Amino acid sequence: RMETDCNPMELPNNTGFEEDSDYRDFEGTDVKDMRLEAEAVVNDVLFAVSNMFVSKTLPCAEDVAYINVETREKNRYCLELTEAGLRVVAYDFDQTDDRLQTPYHETVYSLLDSLSPAYREVFGNALLQRLEALKKDGQS
């Protein structure tokens, strides 16, 4: 049904890139590691979805990472994270479907906002609680 664009078994086990400290410690580069970026995205919104984690099956690279998310409505998505933003690449975990032409979202918030009314409600309530707490702090 769905196709993955890259079989992890076909990838060489040791590309040498991670081991090469010259690259890792090279200062002055603007290269982001998308896996770290993806972990940050997950940590940001995990409280407002049923399940969310960086894919361990699909290959992560400097310029792309994949995030699996299950909304509170029990809908599953695989998201692609690149410099262009986030977009849905499949309607299941650890899948990509090249036929899917979904728009990029600049933030995970706008993407989830478009996919999940329950996310919107939970996130909105958390925001209100934070504002209330700030208001109380300001009055004391």
UniProtKB/TrEMBL annotation:
Q: Which residues form the GSKIP domain?
A: 34-134
GO MF entry, a single one: protein kinase A binding
SUPFAM superfamilies recorded for this chain? Hypothetical protein c14orf129, hspc210 (SSF103107)
BP GO terms, sorted: regulation of canonical Wnt signaling pathway
Write down any Gene Ontology CC term: cytoplasm
PANTHER family listed in its UniProt record: GSK3B-INTERACTING PROTEIN
In its UniProt entry, what is this protein called? Answer: GSK3-beta interaction protein
Q: What is the lineage of its organism?
A: Eukaryota, Metazoa, Chordata, Craniata, Vertebrata
